[in-house]
Every structure is written in C-alpha cells, then in structure tokens.
Amino acid sequence: EVQLVESGGGLAQPGGSLTLSCAASGFTFASISMTWVRQAPGKALEWVGVINPHGDRTSYADSVQGRFTISRDNYQNTVYLQLNSLKTEDTAMYYCVKGYFYNYAPSKAEGDWGQGTQVTVSS
Known about the structure:
Blueprint: E1 3-7, E2 10-12, E3 18-25, E4 34-39, E5 45-51, E6 58-60, E7 68-73, E8 78-83, E9 92-98, E10 112-113, E11 117-121
Parallel strand pairs: 2-11
Antiparallel strand pairs: 1-3, 3-8, 4-5, 4-9, 5-6, 7-8, 9-10, 9-11
C-alpha cells in the first residue's frame, strides 16, 4: 500500500522559511518522480513543482521559482520542499503526490496523495 506522509508545516512570517517533508512507503521510491501540489483556501489545486527519480532535475511553477526548492533522499524515501522568502499568498495546504506531473495539478483521483501539511504565512 502506498503511503505518503507530509510534515513540517506551520506558521511562518512573511520572508521566513519552512521545510516540508514527505515520507514515502509502499513503492520503489527511487524509481518514481515526485510532485508537490498546494491548495489555498477557496482556490483550485496549484502545481508547485516536480523532481525526477534521481533528484538531479526539478521544475517549478513561476509563482515559486527561485524561492522554493525540491530535493529528495532516496535512502530515506523522503522528498522535501524548502520554502524560502515566504509570502502571504503561499498560505495553503501542501501535498506530495507520487508520480510525474508537469505544469498542471492532478486531481485527487490521479496518483497517490498524502494527507497534506498546512502552511500559514502571516505576520
């Protein structure tokens, strides 16, 4: 059974940083791209970025390019999302999703999703 467990969310000030983690199990993690998606209150799902299985290629949404970084540790079966220079508009539930999704947010019927971790950016 595929399991994805996100953690690391919380309250941050504008300009601050957070690191989100997604611990994966139930599949061959090192062979699968991983995607991050977020959903702000009352808004549609938004694709954040994706990392390839080796961890040497990433792509990001324009809205987070240069501020967010995706990385992975294939020994720990964990993918990370480093959030820097946070803005109030980054407030959202953040999800990791098993699989390669590029420049579009999959529906929750596609792929396997974690339960999400809440990020709130506020002064």
